[in-house]
What does this fold into?
Amino acid sequence: MELDVNYISKLARLKLTEEEKIKFSKQLTKILEFMNTLNEIDTKDIKPTSHVIELNNVFREDVVKPSELADDILANAPEREGLYFKVKKVIE
It folds into this structure.
């Protein structure tokens, strides 16, 4: 497992101390053991899902509304034109 940690750290361009290599090696071993446990579970009749809970679209329709804060926001503008900031032309 230490070879895997060395290989992964090299790919990620991480310099690990010997203590970190030992620590990550133990953690990687536990992860792989857990994956083996999960592989033993019979999932042939279980439908693949991306979420545990069914998701519904929660988007709302876009509705244009006048802002109540427009005057407060535009109060600091150097120049304004109606409800818009007026800026100098930058393209010739």
Summary: The longest strand covers residues 80-81. The beta strands are 80-81, 84-85.
